[in-house]
Amino acid sequence: MARITVIFFSYVADRMKARTREFTVPAATSVNAFFDQVLAPTLREPIHHFLFSVNAEWVDPGYELQDGDQLAVIPPVSGG
What we know:
Layout: E1 2-8, H1 11-16, E2 20-25, H2 31-43, E3 51-54, E4 57-59, E5 70-74
Parallel strand pairs: 1-5
Antiparallel strand pairs: 1-2, 3-4, 3-5
C-alpha cells in the first residue's frame, strides 16, 4: 500500500471540498487509475482536461504512485 497526499487547485478544490487530502492506494497505482477510481466520479470530466505533478515534477497519467508521493491535480487554466 502507498500513502499519498493529493493537492487540489482551483475549482477542483471546490468540488473535492478540500485543498489537500491523504489517500491510501495499492502499491504501483497509476495516476490514471487513481483518477478513474477516486476523482472522476466527483469531477465529472475526462482525465485529459487536467495536468498532474508528483513531488513538484510534471508526470503523465501512466506514472505509478509511490508511498509518500505528493500528487497535484491541476485543472485547465487560461490567462490574458
